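Many introductory courses stop at the sequence. We go one step further.
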Amino acid sequence: MEKKYDPNKRHIIISGGSKGLGYSLCQSLLEDKNYPGYFISTFSRTKTAEMDELLQRYPDSFYYAELDIHDGKALIDYVEEACKRSSNLYGLINNAAIVQAGVLATLPEVEIMKMLEVNVTSALMLTRLFLRKMLQEEGKGRIVNISSICGLRGYSGLAVYSATKAALDGFTRGLARELGSRGITVNSVAPGYMRTDLSASLSDEQLEQIKRRTPLGRLAEGIDIVPLVRFLLSEEASFITSQTIVVDGGISN
């Protein structure tokens, strides 16, 4: 029997939702009790136990598929299928990203291309697919790009990653101009260093140095970032667009 989904729930697509910040965002938005609530679609390259748990807990509000974001055809099919589950498309969170630390002179070209493809090209392509659906609607919407303080302030060994995040911030500003008249806001959230797989390539010594340089004395957690993203999705944030908002414990001051 075909499932019946609540047509009133606002549909949010989140890239890379299987772990880390992406998972925290999925979980938090699914738990939102405010009317009309959210229908969440997400994908990742590999399915995790956390995704199975959310599918069991929220069978009528959650859609997940395994997907390599590099695969353009698979991405098109995914968006089509997600919109069949819930047509009330409202928001997109570009969260999927990879990082490989290393000085530019010795960083393998394949790693450079991977970061550019996932962090920039794939985010642009997913946003393009989202907008082709969203602009068919008359309603307002939200796009939130998960950037990084690396895009605003340089760090040794992260030049390429920093470049990808700076590109995402530029994309945010340009797209906000394009979509403002349609009632669609576009903002970036720039977390500080987070305790996720993205920081796994940094040594313990590097992480301790980051903690010492952070006024609040610790790395960011998903729970530190989620409330801001939720706010940017809300009605209260309807006049905020084209912004890059930093959540970094004060390290970039």
